[in-house]
Automatic annotation (TrEMBL), chain B:
InterPro entries referenced in this protein's UniProt entry, alphabetically: MetI-like, MetI-like_sf
One Pfam short name: BPD_transp_1
Domain ABC transmembrane type-1: from-to ranges: 85-299
Protein name (Swiss-Prot/TrEMBL): Sugar ABC transporter permease
TM spans (from-to): 27-53, 89-110, 122-143, 182-200, 221-243, 278-302
Main subcellular location: membrane
PROSITE patterns, A to Z: ABC_TM1
Gene Ontology BP, a term: transmembrane transport
Length: 279, 310
């Protein structure tokens, strides 16, 4: 009896702790949503209420109609989707090479990619600006895509490699014995099996590119090619007092990232786990 | 029968072109990544290192000459830099500590099967998907007494006499970005630890249970030793990453008030972005890189000695 009561208490404590984590994780996002639908005149009088007595979509309407946010949104979407596509493609090829081949210099390739993961990207801000401006790639979405692709590809290679490692070699060896070239085996057997892994990589890189701020600030100075983070930050400094509108814009920035994350989070966690377990 | 059904053995002799193709194949697959990373990261890194020895300011056509170690001499007497270095240590240590402890607890909670674990996991990992600039802005708003509840809660708890923004208090401001960073970074540690936890064979726990080990004893004798290598690697990588992570600070406080939240990474960014002093920014960056390399080396040596002992 005492044993089972102790177990029930333990279970209760466990559920309560999980619930606490969920509340802490969600509360800041909830608050963002709450303020974004609070009418401006209630903002101060009902400042700490959990939900306003009246709600409004006016802030969203303003942000969508009277600001550059639709343009920022489009720019960010172009940059993030292109970066994700380029990185996933390149990382799939390199991850496959590391997973399936023994070749001279493989250890150097892995070491090289690991080291680039370690060094401070902020130290590249000045030289990258100089180089890109000399070839006309500042104030250009292509320049951002190039930079983001390079920054995200090393991690993506390891992620893809862990997905390839999880597929038994026998499958493609059988196909090759049947006369398929390695490339055909890759395309027709391996690629379909690693689609979840590719989806996870896409989602991961998309989110990273969608969030990047410092290089976008440095490399882009024109408003019509700003990405969402840059636009939101300049909006904050320009309209620093209109919290409703700022948070409405914030919610809009949050939506694509969260959607992507929820779609792929299961695969991503699996992939990271596979990578982490291998050590 | 079985002999007939066997596939014909693959011919051993291949044409030279085919052999060459097989030999270069992995290089072809790996080349695009290497070329991309080398041109966008390695080349600028080397060029950036030369900047450190030059007087190079954007918009100033007369700059660009070599000045030897002048930037580094200036750095040695730069009080802002030493303050930023001190702030970096505090920012990194506090962020990593809380991310790790809270992430480990979360991983232990999620490692136990329960109804709704999938959905709970998706929700607690959600902050990770929040763009960092947005998580910075969001927390800055939560700390703002005009729209955020936190100052009012602190007053209600008696921790604050009247609702004020901790981000404008020089003695407390650093906790703002740290809280945002911890909130945002717990999922990383939780995922890594959860992966390591799930790789521990179940039967070890069962055997220990049968031998009469209690829950705490099992945690100490099985979980901790199994997790230790993962913990070491995760903390090493995360420390380096967080020491360089300037976004939250740039967004939330921009280094203020009175430079009390300026870390070395945000100082580099400010020097390059606002003062356009690329030479000095690169000199600071080189010092930061050196310090991080020394740190990583120390951790690796520590790990090897620990591994050798057990």
């Amino acid at each position: 009896m005492a044993m089972s009561r102790k177990r029930i208490l333990g279970t209760l404590a466990h559920r309560a702790a999980v619930l606490l984590y969920i509340v802490v994780a969600l509360f800041p996002l909830y608050w963002l949503l709450k303020v974004s639908v609070t009418p401006t005149r209630l903002l101060y009088s009902e400042g700490v209420r959990m939900w306003p007595s009246k709600t409004t979509w006016a802030h969203y309407a303003f942000v969508l109609q009277n600001s550059d946010f639709p343009q920022f949104f489009e720019n960010s979407l172009i940059v993030s989707l292109s970066t994700a596509a380029v990185v996933t493609l390149l990382a799939a090829a390199a991850g496959y090479a590391i997973s399936r081949f023994e070749f001279r210099g493989k250890i150097w390739l892995i070491g090289f990619l690991l080291v680039t993961q370690m060094f401070p990207l902020v130290m590249l801000i000045a030289p990258i600006f100089k180089i890109l401006s000399s070839i006309g790639l500042t104030n250009s979405l292509a320049g951002l895509i190039l930079v983001y692709s390079a920054f995200n590809v090393p991690f993506a290679v390891f992620l893809m490699q862990s997905f390839f490692d999880a597929i038994p070699r026998d499958l493609e060896e059988a196909a090759m014995i049947d006369g398929a070239s390695r490339f055909m085996a890759f395309r027709q057997i391996i690629v379909p099996l690693t689609l979840p892994g590719m989806a996870a990589t896409l989602g991961f890189v998309f989110t990273a590119a969608w969030s990047e701020l410092l290089f976008a600030l440095m490399l882009i100075s024109k408003s019509d090619i700003s990405t969402f983070p840059v636009g939101l930050l300049s909006f904050v400094s320009k309209f620093g007092v209109d919290f409703g509108q700022m948070m409405a814009a914030g919610v809009l920035a949050l939506v694509p990232a969260v959607l992507f994350f929820l779609l792929i989070q299961r695969f991503l966690v699996q992939g990271l786990m596979a990578g982490a377990v291998k050590g | 029968m079985s002999v007939v059904n066997q596939p014909t053995p693959k011919p051993l002799r291949q044409s030279p072109t085919r052999r060459l193709a097989t030999a270069v194949e992995p290089y072809l697959y790996g080349a695009p990544v290497v070329i991309l990373v080398a041109t966008v990261m390695l080349v600028p890194l080397v060029i950036g290192m030369t900047y450190a020895f030059r007087d190079i300011t954007l918009l100033n056509p007369f700059s660009g000459g070599f000045v030897g170690l002048a930037n580094f001499r200036k750095l040695a007497h730069d009080a802002d830099f030493w303050l930023a270095l001190k702030n970096t240590v505090f920012w990194t240590a506090a962020s990593v500590f809380f991310q790790f402890v809270l992430g480990l607890i979360l991983a232990l909670l999620l490692n136990r099967p329960f109804a709704g674990r999938g959905i709970a996991q998706a929700l607690v990992f959600l902050p990770w998907a929040v763009p960092t600039f947005l998580s910075g802005l969001d927390w800055a708003w939560l700390f703002n007494p005009v729209v955020g509840p936190i100052p009012h809660w602190l007053v209600a708890l008696g921790l604050m006499s009247q609702p004020e923004n901790i981000l404008s208090d020089p003695n407390l401001a650093m906790w703002g970005p740290i809280v945002a960073n911890v909130w945002w970074g717990i999922p990383f540690f939780a995922i890594t630890m959860l992966a390591a936890l799930q790789s521990i064979p179940r039967d070890i726990y069962e055997a220990a249970s049968i031998d009469g080990a209690g829950a705490f004893e099992r945690f100490r004798a099985i979980t901790v030793p199994f997790l230790a290598p993962t913990i070491a690697i995760a903390i090493l990588l995360r420390t380096v990453w967080i020491a360089n992570f300037a976004d939250l600070i740039v967004v939330m406080t921009n280094g203020g008030p009175a430079d009390r939240t300026q870390i070395v990474a945000s100082y580099i960014f400010t020097t390059a972005f606002r003062r356009l002093d690329f030479g000095y920014a690169s000199a600071i960056a080189m010092v930061l890189l050196g310090l991080l390399m020394i740190y990583s080396l120390l951790i690796v040596i520590l790990r090897q000695t620990l591994l050798a002992r057990f």
